[in-house]
Structure formats: C-alpha cells, structure tokens
Branched-chain amino acid transport system substrate-binding protein (Micromonospora phaseoli), 405 residues
Amino acid sequence: MAKPVTGPSVITRRGVLAAAAGTLLLSACGREDERDAAVTRPTPGHELVIGATLELSGSGAALGVAQERALAISAATLNEKGVAVGNLRRQVRLEVLDNRSDPRLAARQATELGRRDDVHALLGTTLAETAMSVIGAAQKLRLPFVSLAFGDSIAVPLAQRAFIYKVTPDAGDVARRLAQLVAAEGLRRVVLLAETGLHGDSGVRAMTGALRTAEVGLARTVRLPASEGGAAGAAEQAVAAQADGVVVWATAPRSGAAARALREAGHRGELFFDAGAVAEETLESHNLRAVEGSYAVHPSSLGGSTIANSSATGRAHRNLVSEYIRRHGAYSGFAPYASDALLLITTAARLADSVDRGRLRAYLQNQVTDGMAGMYSFTPIRHSGMERHSLGVYRVDGGVWNRLS
C-alpha cells in the first residue's frame, strides 16, 4: 500500500486558483447570461473555426484517437447553444486532420490551416515530435496553438513560443511526485527506462534531479528504442542493474510494451509510469499481467473530476464521461486534454469578444481555468499551464486505475 505523499497544501493553492478562475469566468458567464435573452441559438453564418491535427493512425494513435472522440463530444455540447463572442453566438467548427504520427505531415497541415483566414486557432498533436514540427508554422502564421503532447520543450523558450500553449503537466512536476512515491515505498535504487525522443529527454532530466532530491539512487538510465522490437533489449539492460524498481517514462503504447518486456526479462519489483502511459491500450488484456500493481502519476481526471459537481465544468465532465462510455464502451483518462484545450480556446474567445488570433493569444496567456483534467494557470511568462497540485497517484488494481492520493 502506498504511503501518503507529502507536499505543499493542495487545498490552499487550489483554493486560491479556483477563486481567481471564478472571478475570471464569472465576468464571461455574466456577459453570456445577458446575451441569452437576445440570442438563444448560434448565429447563422458565424463560426469559431478550430483546426486539429491529431495522430489518428501510426505510433501515436493510442492517444490521438481518444482526443478525437473527446473533441466530438465536447464540441457537440458547446454547439447546443453556441459560444457567445461579442454580440454573436458562434458555432464551433472543428476541422480534424490525421497527421499519421508524421511530424512533416503535421507541419504541412498546420501551415495549410494557418494560411486560411477562416481558421482562428489550432489544437492537437499527442506526440512531442509532431508538436515541435507544428510550432514553427503556428508561430510564423501567428496562429494560437494549444498542444496536447508531453514534453517541456513545447512551451519554452517563451521568446519563440508566443502563440504556443501546452495542457499536459510539466515533466518536473510529474517526476517530483514519482520520486516522492518511490521514496515513500521504501525503494533505495531504481532504473529509469525512458523512451527515445523529446518526451524521454524531458523525463531523464526531470527524474535525475527529482530522485537525487528524494535521496533515491538511480542505478541506471536506459533508453527505450522507438522501434517496437527494441523493448526486449532495453528491458534486459534495466533488469541487469538489479534495482528495487523501474520508472518507465514513455507514452502508450510503448509504456505497455516496456512493462511486458520487463516482466519477461525477470523484473519482479515495482513499476512506476509517468502520465503519458495512461491510455486504454496500457490496460488491454495483453498488458494486464505486466502492469497489475504498478503506479502512475496523472492528473486527477483519471480518478474522477475534483471540480465542484455543481459547476459548469463539473457538468461538462460528467457529460463527457457518460457520453464517452456510451459511444466507446470505456472512458479514457487521457481524453480530457482535448476537451480542456477546446475549453481554453472558447473561453479566450468569450473573454476577448473576438475571434481575432492576436486577441485569442492575449486571453489565453492571461487565463486561469478549472478544466476537466486539472487546473490551468497561464501567464505571459508561463505557457505550460497545468498546476502541479492537479496531479494524483494511481495504482492498477484488478485491471483498473485506482487513486491513492
């Protein structure tokens, strides 16, 4: 049983942010209520157009498909009344493109969307490599882009990311929570098995420092190759270090493949995952024996929303979960990132009274919002807005993620 993980007060920090979010959103909601009397349905011919480049096939499909499903549900809910922007109520139109997990294709899609006058913002990409390829086009065309990918380099350096935002948690916050968990479990030495690429690079930097702070030894760092057949060799190297546990820093489906390879190589100790592992694929039947009893750090949406049930966001989260299950049979804890990106963009449009790209950017970077996955606090000097206190610790018991703290 995991011991409680100590840290700064969640209630105090979250309460302050929630109050700020309430103040910010209250003004928007107040204006919207006033408009309801005059405009009760979307204004014909007026739209808020949001492009989405997603990994619907290829190596990132395990995460990208969940985003497409969540977007469809959240957009349909928004369009029941439309989005109040100025004196109009706009219909949200999503233009979803499959980038096939190919960075070059993702960049081309972002360029094509950005050159169109009728596209107001862009969201998407669940892989760090596709996100990085989109950044250049979004910046050049001054198109606000909200990324769903893991990787700290997506949102920094700020001088080159004026139009770029990220909704996933920072590697440092996830690593700090994982290291605290490892220490609380009494482990003295662990191996870090990190995927090759930008997300793995962020994990190696963050976990190295976090383990040192937690006074846990890092026995070895092993990189997990991008190829599906490379997991076995990496797992053998990890097991050879004879550590107490292994931290797997990889997105699905590579995280599940790594867990299977580790068990087949003889690892009987504990397994820990970063947030990128949380997808339906990780808990599929071919992975269950390997991941049973393992731990993950992930935003609170995985174990149910922490937001007030009576709030608009709480109602939207309940609708997303129930409709997602109705349509697809099981709910993905990763799904709310896309819904939150959509929420952030539409809230920016409401607050700005405009769909102008520059004004959307200005209101994105001054937004505090309680989303479905967690709390976001964006500022002009911080475009990676997920608050660290939105993270929770989970364990796989009986084939499902259960929240421990």
